[in-house]
């Protein structure tokens, strides 16, 4: 379908994007949970695939190419997003995040990408990206400096990217 | 399905245009290598004479030949790898660049070996007054053209792509200077290779800012 799309077949391209969107959604949902920016991620990934379609080599498998773009785009969105990431039905309605560390860790327990991280990195990513804390608030809560939180967050997102890259995916 | 997503897919499908040379990075990188090296060669040729008999020294001295061939291999590998980093591939970037970096190190090591055992008899013949500036500047056109070409791909590691391209573009005039300027290994390292390699830093910075996935 991708080969046909690159030759200008609009119908094939429409079908490809429709199917790929479902695959991307499942991929992200499985790893990041049912986060509220999921749809944004899917649409941004579709746009990225559209922009990168001139780099697809018909002699190579489609899925590794696609998932490489999806991984990078998703991490990029998570890094840049200013919105609080919520797991549907968990943080909804809570305006200022959670106050009990044990409760937070219990809530994010099912998020696969966070389980891949070391405790330090997990805390930083969970507090700033999932619980909606600002960097100073997270630093205050963890009892470390703001720059340490930023460093842990940066390394945590890098670690997520590396873990996702190392994952074996069916071709 | 989500209506926003449905609309996006419809718009992207409507926006579809055929792509003729999808994924053909090897061809693009080879064209760039030819254009960039020809440009550097022409500028150096236009701005001063080559060392007399320098081409003949390739036949006469195997060490000089190996040194030159290693340089060509390193430049080609760096250029091709730089373009390949513009293609999303499920392989760590460090693994992808390793061969070209090893070749570059071998070339530099070979020149450095010349400090102890020079490939040619050291001589001031053919000395160019501002060869360090020439080595730095004449790689710039190639770097700019290469950055524009990689920008049209989908570079996920812009700084890496820029640095590799800078190394390749900067090494071109450095290698040509082996024939255009005097042959003294220390001079080659300090006045040709180092200024040429400085383009890697220019490329790294330019790549970081210019080569970002859309």
Q: What are the defining features of this structure?
A:
heterodimer; A: 171 residues; mainly alpha; 66% helix; elongated; B: 214 residues; 9 helices
Description:
The complex is a heterodimer of chains A (171) and B (214). By secondary structure, chain A is an all-alpha fold. Helices cover 66% and strands 0% of the residues of chain A. Chain A contains nine helices and no strands. The radius of gyration of chain A is 18 Å and the shape is elongated. In chain A, 37% of the residues are buried. With 214 residues, chain B is mainly α. Chain B is 72% helix and 0% strand. Chain B has nine helices and no strands. In chain B, helix 6 runs antiparallel to helix 8. The longest helix of chain B is centred in the last third of the chain and has 26 residues. The two termini of chain B are 25 Å apart.
Spatial separation of the terminal alpha carbons of chain B: 25 Å
- End-to-end C-alpha gap of chain A: 15 Å
User: How large, in whole angstroms, is the Cα Rg of chain B?
Assistant: 20 Å
The portion of residues assigned to helices of chain A is 55-70%
Number of strands of chain B: 0
Topology summary:
The complex is a heterodimer of chains A (171) and B (214).
Chain A (H helix, E strand, L loop, with lengths): L1 H5 L3 H23 L5 H14 L10 H19 L20 H7 L4 H4 L3 H12 L4 H8 L3 H21 L5
Helix pairs in contact in A: 2-3, 3-4, 4-9, 7-9, 8-9
Chain B lengths: L2 H12 L10 H23 L8 H5 L1 H23 L8 H24 L14 H7 L2 H12 L6 H23 L4 H26 L4
């Amino acid at each position: 379908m991708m080969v046909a799309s690159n030759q200008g077949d609009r119908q094939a391209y429409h079908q490809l994007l429709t199917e790929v969107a479902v695959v991307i959604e499942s991929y992200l949902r499985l790893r990041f949970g049912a986060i509220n920016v999921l749809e944004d991620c899917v649409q941004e990934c579709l746009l990225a695939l559209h922009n990168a379609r001139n780099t697809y080599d018909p002699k190579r498998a489609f899925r590794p190419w696609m998932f490489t773009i999806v991984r990078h785009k998703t991490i990029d969105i998570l890094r840049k997003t200013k919105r609080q990431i919520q797991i549907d039905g968990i943080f909804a309605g809570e305006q200022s995040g959670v106050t009990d560390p044990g409760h937070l860790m219990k809530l994010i327990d099912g998020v696969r990408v966070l389980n891949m991280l070391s405790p330090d990195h997990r805390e930083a990513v969970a507090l700033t990206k999932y619980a909606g804390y600002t960097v100073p608030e997270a630093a205050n809560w963890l009892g470390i400096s703001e720059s340490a939180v930023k460093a842990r967050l940066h390394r945590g997102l890098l670690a997520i990217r590396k873990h996702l890259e190392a994952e074996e995916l069916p071709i | 399905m989500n209506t926003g997503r449905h609309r996006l897919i419809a718009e992207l499908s409507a926006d579809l245009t055929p792509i003729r040379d999808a994924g053909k990075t090897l061809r693009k990188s080879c064209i760039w290598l030819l254009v960039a090296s020809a440009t550097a060669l022409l500028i150096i040729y236009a701005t001063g004479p080559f060392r007399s008999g320098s081409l003949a020294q390739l036949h006469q001295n195997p060490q000089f030949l190996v040194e030159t061939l290693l340089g060509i291999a390193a430049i080609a590998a760096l250029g091709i790898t730089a373009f390949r980093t513009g293609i999303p591939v499920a392989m760590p970037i460090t693994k992808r660049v390793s061969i070209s970096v090893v070749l570059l190190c071998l070339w530099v090591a070979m020149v450095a070996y010349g400090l102890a055992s020079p490939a040619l008899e050291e001589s001031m013949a053919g000395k160019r007054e501002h060869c360090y500036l020439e080595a730095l500047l004449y790689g710039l056109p190639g770097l700019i053209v290469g950055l524009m070409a990689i920008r049209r791909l989908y570079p996920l590691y812009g700084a890496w792509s820029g640095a590799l391209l800078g190394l390749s573009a900067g090494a071109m005039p450095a290698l040509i200077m082996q024939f255009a300027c005097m042959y003294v290994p220390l001079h080659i390292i300090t006045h040709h290779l180092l200024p040429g390699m400085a383009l890697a830093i220019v490329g790294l910075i330019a790549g970081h800012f210019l080569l970002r996935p859309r």
